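Hello, quick one for you while I still have it in my head. A protein chain has come my way and I'm curious about its shape. I'm sending you its amino acid sequence along with the backbone structure tokens. I'd be grateful if you could look everything over and explain what you see. Here's the protein in full, and shout if anything looks odd to you:
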Amino acid sequence: MLRTPLCDALGIAHPICQAGMANYTSPELVAAVSRAGGLGVHGTLDRPPEALQAVLRATRDLLDGEPFGVNLVLSRLDEAAFAVCLAERVPIYCFSWGDPGPWVRQVRASGARVIAQVTTVAEVPTALAAGVDAIVAQGTEGGGHSGFVPLAQLLPAVAAAAGGTPVLAAGGIVDGHGLAAALALGAAGGWLGTRFLATPEAPISPAWQAAILAARAGDTIHTEAFDRLWGRPWPGARVRALRNRFTDEWAGREEALLASRDAVQRAVWRAEREDDPSLFALMAGSGVGAIREISPAGELVRSIVAQAEATIARLAGFTAPRPRERRGIAP
């Protein structure tokens, strides 16, 4: 059975966490992941407090005591939403895009555990000073807002800096092969987003899901165009999304976009209403090209674990015993 220090740190059976993904989560998705032994996490971004409260209560109703979490974006924190999470006694909090220190005391007082997300190794001391239980190292391959350092470079550095604190790998991981590779680079688990969008429980449009299934390797782009369109700067990050007509027209031409912003905003709103994937942000990580089917979230957790175990076992077979051991002679 695949078990790492992360499992003990968060009270879960499998080292797989489903990312909060802004607010593209549902009670059904989060509960399915947690019931399967992983950690389901709700995004809170732009969720009104009343709606968030309803989502959290619905999630708890679908669980039998298994832990679940919330992700709070500190650069755009809604303190009313944070208060709802505390009142609802959410078991696990993940803080991203900011220093979690000022918020950890209140979370600890509620008995919850804490995760911090980082996109550079320089952020690790701040996370450790806050006393977090685990750290997410998000590489530039991650869907939605992500930093600029490739996961293969970031993860070993974060794991070394974190000492004994378990590290989750985020960015481009969609299967057990990717999870096994992350473990080899120093991770204690995986933080997966895009793969869980391709589930029946994910609350995204049919066109978005179809675009995920149709994507091939290299079909994502890292761009500021969406943030410029909505006038929401996000320092230290860009949005990774599937290429479409919008990105082809405006990526790299963000200044020109500002001059046409009102008209383009109206066109994007219309595209979202009509489920036209050519204009709105189809956020996805760089591993999207390996996703080929819609899979129930609980089954997905189990299949990723099984594939990771098989991959690790196969790699173990590449290590031959030393000659003296092979003859049954102790070295």
In short: The chain has a mean pLDDT of 95. The chain is about 45% helix and 15% strand. The first strand starts at residue 16 and ends at 18.
